Amino acid sequence: MTDIMDQPDSELEPDAEAHLRSILATVPDAMLVIDERGTILSFSAAAERMFGYDEAEVAGVNVSMLMPSPDRERHDQYLVNYLTTGKRKIIGIGRVTTALHRDGSTFPIELSVGEAWLGDRRIFTGFIRDLTERQETLLRLQDLQSELAHVGRVSEMGTLASSLAHELNQPLTAVASYCEGARELLDHNPDPEALAMAREALDEAAQQAVRAGQIVRRLRDFMSNGEMERRVESLQRLVTEANALALVGSREHGIDVQVSLDPNADKVFVDRIQIQQVLVNLIRNAIDAMIDAPLRCLVVRTALKGQRLVEVVIEDTGSGINETVATQLFQPFVTSKQNGMGIGLSICRTIVEAHGGRIWFEPRHDGGTAFHFTVPSGEAKDD
């Protein structure tokens, strides 16, 4: 076991050191200790089992080796920012994120970080819990809830549509009748009195058109996902957590995940749960599309799109979208999957459009598909 206490100005009694070693050997959650530079000082037995490394292999190495991109490249700067500003983003708070196994696979974890001093030496202790099994259950429950809710709305939609058919037919028939009457008046007797009557008929037609629009809006509102709780959120956090959820169970498929997030596009004004649902659906679809592909590369990237929108792109290197379903891909019950219900992308479109954005897909020039969607920028909300 690496001795983190072997420093001239931070000596411990042998009993205290033995006690620490006992904790590291028996603590049920993975535990590691790093210094201010991010260097791994201690690595518990549970951490060895979780990550696939022996302690001797990681001792003295930067802890970023246990992180996928982009956290790997950013971790040292996170430490510098904290040591410089004292502003905590994870210490004492905890977060759900993604870790990197020795074999290159990623898995979701819950990370809690504590800070302590050994003499004049600052150390950070991380407790890590593998969420794979728990997240698989939660993810499946989330899918079932989303599917049942959507199927329920579609079913109720049929009943509602029947009851609204007569109501909607009335204003549309009136619009046609008023317009026809106005045309007859203008064709056969265009005197001042006829013009006044035609104008009145067109006014009535306009009112009936507005009424029809109100009926359609009521129908659209009914089909939406209900009230949203929109706040300014960090898109990096949303993507990190969604990635952790969506990658559950994909370790054996060897998916290469590349995340490229524009720091200028981090703030978004969204309902966190709903947008994470969109991200999880799209990332899981991308993974499913690559299961049998020779190259399995998942790319998640973000960028500003104008002044008020942020664009999110999820790309895969799969076989692409079948032309027979491409034009209806976002419609309910349309799917290219053998075991799919065709609901996920329909739900994604409903959520994105309710946020004032849009969703679409494009074939990649070297194979695969890129799904794009936009959401409101949090910077625009602050204006």
**Stretches with pLDDT under 50, minimum 5 residues:** 1-12
What portion of the residues fall into strands of 2 or more residues?
15-25%
What letter string, H or E per element, gives the SSE order? HEEHHHEEEHHEHEEHEEHHEEH
| CATH architecture title of the largest domain | 2-Layer Sandwich
CATH homologous superfamily label of the largest domain: Histidine kinase-like ATPase, C-terminal domain
Radius of gyration: 29 Å
In terms of structural class, how would the helical and strand content be classed? alpha+beta
Overall mean pLDDT stands at: 78
Largest sheet: 5 strands, antiparallel
Share of residues in helices: 40-55%
Enumerate how many helices there are, as a single number. Answer: 11
Tally of domains? 3
Q: How would you describe the oligomerization state of the chains in this entry?
A: single chain
Across the major sheet, the strand order is: 2-1-5-4-3
- End-to-end Cα distance, whole Å, is 54 Å
Envelope shape: elongated
CATH topology of the largest domain: Heat Shock Protein 90
CATH class bucket of the largest domain? Alpha Beta
Q: Count of DSSP E strands?
A: 12
Architecture overview:
The protein has helices at 14-26, 45-51, 55-58, 71-85, 132-188, 192-223, 235-246, 272-290, 323-326, 344-354, 378-382; strands spanning 30-35, 40-43, 95-100, 106-118, 121-130, 230-234, 256-260, 267-271, 297-305, 309-315, 359-363, 369-376. By secondary structure, the chain is of the alpha+beta class. The chain folds into three domains: 14-130, Beta-Lactamase, CATH 3.30.450; 135-223, Helix Hairpins; 230-382, Histidine kinase-like ATPase, C-terminal domain (Heat Shock Protein 90, 2-Layer Sandwich), CATH 3.30.565. Residues 1-12 have low confidence and may be disordered. The longest helix has 57 residues, at 132-188. Strand 4 and strand 5 (121-130) form a beta hairpin. 47% of the residues lie in helices and 22% in strands.
